[in-house]
Recover the amino acids of this structure.
C-alpha cells in the first residue's frame, strides 16, 4: 500500500466528519423548526432548539393541506412518466440499434440534438401546444411531454448495440416476434441501464418544479414541489408549518434513497445522468 | 472466415423459412417508431422551431394576436438594462458556483478516497449525496428560513459570534452569495460521486512509479491525479456549467431576482417575461440567446478540454 500516514489520514477523516456534520445542519434545522410551537415563533424568541416543542406545525399541515392528494398527484404522474420513458426508450433504442430503415441516421441525430436544448428554450411553445390541446391545469399536461426521453433513447441504443446479432437471430429463428424479443431477451440484458434510467427519470419527474409551475394552477392538481412552494406562500410567518410539510416530504425520499443507494450511485457513474 | 459463412448460411436458411419476416420487422419499426417520433416532434422539434419563429413576433397569449416585428426583439434586448444585468448575473453565478463546486467536490472526493474504513467511506458518500435527491424547490424553502433576518439560522450564528446580522436574501451584496451557498449544498453530491469513480479508475501503478521517482504528495496530485482525471473533469465541468446556467427554482423561490435584479439570472428573466409579463415573443428571443450562449460555452469547453488531453 502506498502513502501510509496515520496522522494525515486521521486529520482528513476528522475534516470530513466536520464537513459531513455541516452538510447535515439544514436537515437538523428543518426537523427542529418543524417541532417549534406557534408560541415560539410569534414571541420571536425562537432559537435553534424549539423552546416549547409541539406538533402545531404537523397538525396545521394535515388540517389545511390536501397533503395526501399532492403525494398522489406526484406519485401517479411520476410512475406513468417513468414506465412510459423506459418503454419508449428501450424500444426506440432497439429500433435504432438493430434495424435498418430510411432516414435512420437523420432521425437519430435529430433526437440527439434535442438533448442539448435546455427546457427554458422550449417551455413557451410547449405551453402554447399544451394550451391548444386544452390540457392547462390538467395532470395530463405533466405526463404528455415527458413520455419520451432523448437521453433514454441514446442510452438504450448504446447498450443494445452491444448485444450480439446472433443472439437475436437465434431467437427469431425460434419464432420470437419483435416485441417478445424485446421483453424476453433485450430487456434483461440491459436491465442495469434501464434501472438507472428509471431511477433518474422518476427522480426528475418527482422533483420537477418549472413545468408544473407553468401548467398547474389549482391546489388540488399540484405536485409535491409546487404544492410546497404554494403552501410556503400562504404560511410565511408560521414557518413551523412549512417545515413540517418539508419533513413529511423529505422522509420518504430519504428512505427510498437509502434502500436504492447502490443503484443510484452505480447508475450515476454509468450514465452520467442527473 | 468459416464461421462467418456458416452464420450467413444460417441467416439465409432462416430467411427462407420465414419469408414474411422482413416485412414483419418493417411493420414493427413503422408501428413503433411513428408514435415515438410524433411525441418527439410535438414536444421537442416543433417547440424549437416555434420558439425561433415566435422570437420574431410580438405575442401576448391573452390577446391571441401576433404581430411580426422582425429582429426588433433581438435588438431590444441589447438595450434592455435588465437583460444586460441578468446576463452579467448569470455569468457571475455560473462562474463562481462552478469553480467552487469543482474545487470542493474534488477535495472531498480525494479525501473520501483516502478513508480506508469501508463503512465510514460509504457513510461520508451518503451524507454528501443526500441533498441531491431532495426536490430543489423544497431545499430552497428550507434555506429561505435559514436565511431569515429575524430568526434564521445564519443570523443566529452571527449573533453568537457578536457580529451584526445580515439581510442574506435582500442585501445586494449577499443575495447572490446566499443562493450560491444553497446551490452548492444541494448539488455537490453528484460531482463527488463522479470524481470518486474517476479516481477509482486511475491505476495504482502510476502512483507507485511516481513515488519511486521521488514524487511528493503535491507532485502526485498535480502530475498524476489531475492529468489522469481530466476526462472526468471535462465531463463534470460541462454538465455542471449547463445545469447551473439553467438553475431556476432557487432564484424563483428564494429571491425572485431581487434585490435590484442582483439575482435575476437569464433563466428567471425568460420565465418572468413569458409568464408574468406575457411577452412571449420577447421571451422567445431571450430563450434563443440563452441557447446560443450555452452552446458556445459548451463548444469552448470541449475545445479547451481536447487540447489538454493531448499532453
Amino acid at each position: 500500500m502506498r502513502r501510509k500516514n496515520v496522522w494525515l489520514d486521521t486529520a482528513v477523516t476528522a475534516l470530513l466528519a466536520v464537513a459531513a456534520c455541516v452538510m447535515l445542519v439544514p436537515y437538523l434545522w428543518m426537523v427542529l423548526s418543524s417541532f417549534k410551537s406557534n408560541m415560539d415563533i410569534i414571541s420571536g424568541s425562537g432559537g435553534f432548539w424549539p423552546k416549547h416543542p409541539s406538533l402545531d406545525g404537523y397538525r396545521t399541515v394535515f388540517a389545511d393541506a390536501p397533503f395526501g392528494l399532492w403525494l398522489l398527484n406526484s406519485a401517479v404522474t411520476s410512475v406513468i412518466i417513468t414506465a412510459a420513458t423506459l418503454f419508449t426508450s428501450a424500444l426506440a433504442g432497439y429500433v435504432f440499434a438493430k434495424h435498418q430503415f430510411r432516414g435512420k441516421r437523420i432521425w437519430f441525430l435529430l433526437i440527439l440534438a434535442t438533448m442539448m436544448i435546455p427546457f427554458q428554450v422550449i417551455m413557451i411553445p410547449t405551453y402554447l401546444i399544451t394550451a391548444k390541446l386544452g390540457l392547462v391545469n390538467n395532470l395530463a399536461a405533466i405526463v404528455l411531454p415527458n413520455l419520451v426521453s432523448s437521453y433514454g433513447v441514446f442510452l438504450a441504443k448504446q447498450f443494445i448495440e452491444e448485444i450480439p446479432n446472433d443472439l437475436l437471430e437465434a431467437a427469431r429463428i425460434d419464432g420470437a416476434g419483435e416485441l417478445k424479443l424485446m421483453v424476453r431477451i433485450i430487456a434483461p440484458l440491459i436491465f442495469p441501464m434501464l434501472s438507472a434510467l428509471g431511477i433518474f427519470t422518476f427522480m426528475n419527474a418527482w422533483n420537477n418544479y418549472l413545468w408544473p409551475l407553468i401548467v398547474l394552477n389549482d391546489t388540488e392538481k399540484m405536485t409535491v414541489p409546487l404544492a410546497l412552494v404554494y403552501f410556503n406562500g400562504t404560511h410565511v410567518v408560521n414557518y413551523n408549518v412549512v417545515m413540517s410539510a418539508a419533513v413529511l416530504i423529505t422522509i420518504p425520499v430519504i428512505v427510498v434513497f437509502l434502500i436504492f443507494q447502490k443503484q443510484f450511485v452505480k447508475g450515476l457513474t454509468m450514465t452520467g445522468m442527473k | 472466415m468459416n464461421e462467418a459463412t456458416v452464420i450467413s448460411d444460417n441467416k439465409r436458411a432462416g430467411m427462407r423459412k420465414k419469408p414474411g419476416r422482413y416485412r414483419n420487422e418493417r411493420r414493427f419499426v413503422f408501428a413503433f417508431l411513428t408514435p415515438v417520433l410524433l411525441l418527439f416532434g410535438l414536444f421537442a422539434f416543433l417547440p424549437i422551431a416555434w420558439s425561433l419563429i415566435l422570437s420574431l413576433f410580438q405575442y401576448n397569449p391573452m390577446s391571441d394576436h401576433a404581430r411580426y416585428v422582425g429582429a426588433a426583439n433581438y435588438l431590444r434586448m441589447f438595450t434592455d438594462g435588465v437583460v444586460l444585468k441578468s446576463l452579467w448575473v448569470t455569468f457571475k453565478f455560473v462562474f463562481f458556483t462552478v469553480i467552487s463546486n469543482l474545487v470542493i467536490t474534488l477535495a472531498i472526493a480525494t479525501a473520501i478516497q483516502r478513508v480506508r474504513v469501508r463503512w465510514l467511506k460509504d457513510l461520508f458518500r451518503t451524507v454528501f449525496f443526500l441533498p441531491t435527491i431532495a426536490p430543489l424547490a423544497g431545499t430552497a424553502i428550507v434555506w429561505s428560513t435559514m436565511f431569515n433576518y429575524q430568526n434564521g439560522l445564519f443570523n443566529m450564528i452571527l449573533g453568537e459570534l457578536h457580529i451584526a446580522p445580515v439581510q442574506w436574501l435582500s442585501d445586494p451584496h449577499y443575495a447572490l452569495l446566499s443562493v450560491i451557498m444553497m446551490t452548492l449544498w444541494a448539488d455537490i453530491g453528484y460531482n463527488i460521486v463522479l470524481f470518486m469513480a474517476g479516481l477509482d479508475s486511475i491505476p495504482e501503478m502510476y502512483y507507485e512509479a511516481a513515488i519511486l521517482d521521488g514524487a511528493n504528495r503535491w507532485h502526485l496530485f498535480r502530475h498524476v491525479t489531475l492529468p489522469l482525471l481530466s476526462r472526468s473533469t471535462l465531463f463534470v465541468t460541462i454538465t455542471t456549467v449547463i445545469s447551473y446556467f439553467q438553475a431556476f427554482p432557487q432564484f424563483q423561490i428564494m429571491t425572485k431576482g431581487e434585490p435590484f435584479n442582483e439575482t435575476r439570472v437569464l433563466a428567471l428573466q425568460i420565465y418572468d417575461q413569458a409568464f408574468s409579463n406575457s411577452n412571449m415573443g420577447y421571451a422567445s428571443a431571450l430563450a434563443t440567446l440563452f441557447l446560443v450562449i450555452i452552446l458556445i460555452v459548451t463548444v469552448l469547453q470541449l475545445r479547451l478540454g481536447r487540447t489538454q488531453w493531448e499532453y
About this structure: The mean pLDDT of chain A is 86. Chain A touches chain B through 91 residues (CB under 8 Å).
